[in-house]
Design goal:
The protein is mainly β. Helix content is about 5%, strand content about 40%.
């Protein structure tokens, strides 16, 4: 029997998820339990638990799990022996590859309280590597050198990175084979003598570092979703706090990803496509209402005619409704050429 996974539920999950009705009896759901064992479960459309992977990690808000084609479970979570620190919601310390009998065959931890951590989504790749999202805290003085306008009570910004990890299943080691860092693709229009000064509306491949300056936690972007198109060699990201999605070129080298040249698109690590909130780049002829984009996925070639279609999950919040009805999900289909 070929298992087709319909979706992955990765935050604030409880056993009540087992009551969910899936639209097709041939589909299955994979999810983690939070606030307890941290185990991962595979269920069918009737809610029957087909398999359980035990865990030595805590599943937290933001951790995720994926079942690879070779049968290994890819999952993230928080190590219980790492002391608590100044972490944002959605942070987790460790990514693992796990056999069906719950044996961990590879593990990588990257977390320094108040400085560095994995967070939210991750993505398995056909070559066996893993794409992960990383928060790195950049202190105020370093941010000012990048063109950031200082804000009272904000002592720095949690900047985003994307890393491609190459697991070595023989010795357990990890090699970072590719990296993209947002700090290399910033723009600002407040200080003509400062770094990265340009017309924000004309530099749409770069991100305005001062757009979300009012967020006192320093969490200006909050990438909550990541997906990768093998056919296009492109990555889609969902920076939830600015209501956008971004597409970046993965065909670059790490060195090219830090510039605006190179790669199949010739734009280095600049954004090659963005959607959701034109106000972020000073363009006011489009919708600017909050969209709360949580996830974006490249469509399957089996389901649509073009690999360039993005399926986007949007959450709308209506605070006039009772709290349990405030969030409403919508699905958008976008054509990206």
């Amino acid at each position: 029997m070929t298992i087709r996974l319909l979706f992955f539920l990765s935050f604030l999950l409880t056993p009540l998820v087992c009551q969910a009705q899936l639209p097709n009896p041939d589909y299955y759901a994979l999810f983690q339990l939070t606030g307890g064992s941290g185990e991962t479960r595979l269920i069918d459309s009737e809610g029957t638990v087909l398999h359980t992977w035990e865990s030595n990690l805590s599943a937290v808000n933001g951790s995720a799990a994926y079942l690879r084609e070779d049968g290994l479970l890819l999952r993230s979570g928080q190590r219980n022996d790492i002391p608590g620190g100044d972490f944002l919601p959605g942070s987790w310390s460790t990514v693992q590859l796990v056999e069906s009998d719950s044996t961990v065959v590879w593990e990588h931890t990257q977390q320094v309280p108040g400085e560095l951590t994995f967070h939210h989504d991750l993505k398995p790749m056909r070559n066996g590597n893993v794409l992960v999202t990383v928060w790195e805290f950049v202190p105020a003085a370093e941010m000012e050198a990048l063109g950031w306008e200082p804000v009272s009570d904000v002592n720095g910004v949690w900047m985003e990175k994307i890393q491609e990890l190459e697991p070595n299943l023989l010795d357990g080691s990890t090699n970072v084979v590719w990296e993209w860092a947002l700090e290399n693709h910033l723009v600002q229009d407040l200080d003509a003598n400062g770094a990265n000064f340009a017309d924000v509306g004309e530099e749409r491949g770069r991100v305005d570092i001062n757009f979300n300056a009012g967020i006192f936690s320093g969490d200006y972007f909050h990438i909550s979703g990541i997906d990768y198109s093998e056919e296009r060699d492109e990555i889609v990201l969902c920076p939830n706090n600015i209501d956008e999605l971004w597409v970046i070129d993965h065909s670059t080298t790490t060195a090219e990803a830090a510039t605006s040249t190179g790669g199949a698109r010739g734009q280095g690590g600049e954004l090659i496509y963005r959607w959701g909130n034109p106000g972020v780049y000073d363009f006011h002829n489009g919708p600017t209402e909050p969209r709360f984009l949580r996830r974006a996925h490249w469509s399957s070639p089996r389901k649509v005619d073009s690999e360039s279609v993005l399926m986007v999950r949007q959450i709308r919040r209506d605070h006039s409704l009772p709290i349990h009805q405030q969030r409403q999900s919508e699905i958008w289909l976008l054509c990206h050429h």
